[in-house]
Design brief:
There is one protein chain. The protein is mainly alpha-helical and 161 residues long. It is built from 7 helices and 2 strands. Helix content is 62%, strand content 4%. Strands 1-2 form a two-stranded antiparallel ribbon. α1 (21-31) packs across α6, α3 runs parallel beside α4 and α3 (56-75) packs parallel to α6. The longest helix has 24 residues, at 128-151.
Length: 161
């Protein structure tokens, strides 16, 4: 597909409209753990890849759910939030603006006019380009969490004790 300059590439087991090698690598890396986060990323990818029906909104919901699932796994609490991951474990670089950006990414999907609530007149419009952005960004976020906790297991113990 790459040699023929096709508008699609294989990402995992899906034919996807994502053609950037960097983006593909980020998504595929997030699938390696084969955990709940990976299931959500795979689902987001499948929804984004559906050419018959635009499922961008659903894809975005699955992308952010992957981040939540990874946070819950790392924190060790099924009710853990992204805020708890950032505050308690401090595995994410602690620059105030970066932390705010990550929280805002989550809040974008969860607010009353966000992605994961029923459609209303106030609901934000979405499209495949935004779903692609969220899939790649959330995959990278999942990978950041995974790499920070994997590379320094004692970091979790230090911050949770």
């Amino acid at each position: 597909m790459e040699r023929e300059n096709a508008a699609y590439r294989f990402v995992g087991d899906q034919i996807s409209p994502i053609t950037s090698v960097t983006e593909i690598n980020e998504i595929e890396l997030s699938l390696v753990a084969k955990d709940e986060a990976a299931v959500h990323i795979e689902s987001a990818l499948t929804l984004l890849s559906n050419k018959e029906k635009d499922q961008s909104r659903e894809s975005i919901g699955q992308s952010i759910s992957a981040v939540e699932a990874k946070a819950k796994k790392v924190v060790g609490n099924t009710k853990a939030t992204l805020a708890e991951l950032c505050q308690k474990l401090k595995i994410i670089p602690q620059h105030d603006q970066l932390v705010k950006a990550l929280h805002n990414l989550y809040n974008y999907t969860s607010g009353k006019d966000g992605i994961r609530h029923g459609l209303t007149e106030e609901s934000m419009p979405v499209n495949p380009a935004l779903a692609r952005f969220m899939l790649v960004t959330c995959s990278a976020f999942v990978n950041l969490i995974e790499s920070e906790t994997e590379l320094s297991p004692q970091k979790i113990a230090e911050h949770t004790s």
